[in-house]
Specification:
Helices cover about 95% and strands about 0% of the residues. The protein is mainly α and about 110 residues long.
Length: about 110
């Protein structure tokens, strides 16, 4: 049973995409190798590496600052929830005592 025409066309598109992707990677390596041979190219690559390092450091710092803020918010929420649970428990105990007093005084 022959495969539908559309399925074959989809496979051709996928294979073409993979070929172009592989050629792009190879081309990038070749270009980087050629640029690295030239002293000016080495300088450009060093500046690029430095900028990428600065960017990743800033992103890391921002991530950790946000993580700290979220951790503080979560801790505050836990404290509030704990306080509410404790006060609710105290109120339930007080209500139970009132009910007991009312029940025992009506006897």
């Amino acid at each position: 049973m022959p495969r539908p025409r559309r399925r074959i066309e989809e496979e051709v598109v996928i294979v073409r995409s993979l070929v172009w992707f592989a050629l792009g990677i190879v081309g990038g390596f070749v270009a980087a190798h050629l640029v690295n041979k030239d002293p000016r190219g080495q300088e450009v690559l060093a500046q690029l590496d430095s900028r990428i390092g600065e960017f990743t450091d800033r992103m890391s710092d921002a991530y950790h600052a946000q993580e700290t803020r979220l951790s503080e918010i979560i801790d505050d929420a836990k404290n509030v929830a704990s306080s509410v649970a404790e006060k609710t428990s105290d109120a339930a105990d007080d209500a139970a005592r009132v009910v007991e007093k009312t029940a025992s005084s009506s006897d």
